[in-house]
Automatic annotation (TrEMBL):
It holds the Pfam family p450. This is Cytochrome P450. The lineage of its organism: Eukaryota, Viridiplantae, Chlorophyta, core chlorophytes, Chlorophyceae. PANTHER family: THROMBOXANE-A SYNTHASE. GO terms for molecular function: heme binding; iron ion binding; monooxygenase activity; oxidoreductase activity, acting on paired donors, with incorporation or reduction of molecular oxygen. Residues 251-292 are annotated as: Disordered. Residues 251-263 have a biased composition (Low complexity).
Amino acid sequence: MEIVRVGGAQVIAARTRDLGPIFKLCIGRTVWVTTTDPEFIRLLGFRSTTRDFTRTLMRGDLRYVIHNDIVASDDELWRSLRSAWQPAFSSASLRGYLPLMVKSADELVALLLRRGSAGGEKGAGEGPLELHALLGCMTLQVVGSCAFGVDFRCFELEGAAAQQQADAAAEEEGMALTHACRDIFETLTLKSAGRWVSASALLPEFRPVWRVLAHLFPDDGFTKQLKARKKLLSTARALLNDWQRHSKPAVAADVADGTDGAALEGRVSAPGPQVSASPPDANVRSALSDVD
């Protein structure tokens, strides 16, 4: 398949150039109606809530999470998830989060300046920077600080040495989570996902068979994605539990001051981004230092 040989982004860009912003794209035996028009994408995102994400080869909790996240969910579940998350993106919330976002951006700029000034020095030896990966680190840093009040320290380690430390040191949860997210996105492409995912795209009617074979005889691509998704799920659960433990004392204090305790308890039972218009304190906690 051309999409495996040259990559999905390149194929879509070529189709858009030759055929326009709406076209059919065949991935194996599955035909997708594809659009690159931003306004049409926005309209579809709000009005079309039926999405086919049954092609995953994951099973158990991982399969359940994939089928029920805000991207893949359908109908009423999608509307409920969107309603729950919408307050986090209100103007008031974003203004409150701005100092944390700026702090993460400043860390990225400082890293670029530091590496740029050392680039010409003999013995610098750190190799080229992957800007795409660094932007991913900044995104995760923003999510960690704004949503959970946790500093993932994503810019403290880079490159192969960072990967080795993430694998070897369990306490470096933030860095391990950064690499898990990166591995998931990397293995979403057919080119790097492995033979079982490619077989599932070519012959989707045999997907239950491919799922069994993928777990019995996993290749490198599937193993990488499976490990990364397990790490992401376990860390996200730990973050949510940690956030709730740190939030409930604040609820008790507010109740003692006469604040509406029922309303606060309702907010505490949900993940960080949707709980209120006021963001976590800018002095965020160190990366999962007190997560069980």
